[in-house]
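Journal club side-thread
Mid-discussion, someone asked how the predicted structure for our own chain would compare to the paper's figures. Pasting it here so we can look after the session.
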Amino acid sequence: MDAAEAGGLGPELPVQVKICGLTRPADAAACAAAGAAAVGCVFYAASPRRVDLEQAAALRRALPPPVSLVGVFVDEPVERVLQAAVRAGLDAVQLHGSEPAEDARRLRAEGLRVIKALFEGREPSFARAAEYPASAFLLECGRGPLPGGNARAWDWRHARPLGARFPMILAGGLTPENVALALEAARPDAVDVSSGVERRPGEKDLDRIRRLIAAAASGRARRRIFP
């Protein structure tokens, strides 16, 4: 279902958790065992969490169904995104740059689920959601040196109106200590966490992952983002 077509809402569901920025298969397997609905691997060259196609494929092999593997891209040509999706076995792609709506449309036409990042502090802004035929939107503040993963908390209440209209993933500064407050403020369908559950970039802390997933269980969602 397109985000723009998300009209009728069913009964409340558990909030899903995506753990992003994984680099090691053992961490991927541990996230799945802890109850994560999805894990993310970053293909952005400037990220300290960047993986190559072989590493991403190893993450895929470590994940049991139905846990989704999401590839994160920043302003990559559509052809490269499609090649990476096939070679790494991605279940969905996350466009985390200034990609035009046409990129999302082409990727959806190829059968991929598309998550489009929108930002409070820069373009593409929340106001542009209706332009994108996305499966869901990831909302964060958009401040910091990297396109994402900057551990910047923000006023999560600003995401709530968009989440009432479209499937929404909340990101930005989330930790085991504050995720329950963020869920109350924004009412997202899922949360995306990277630096808030790390020992160092790319190396996850399993105890913090477990604590975050347990804390997120207090929230209720309108929609399922990941199968």
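Post-session note: Helices lie at 25-34, 53-62, 78-88, 101-109, 160-165, 179-186, 206-216.
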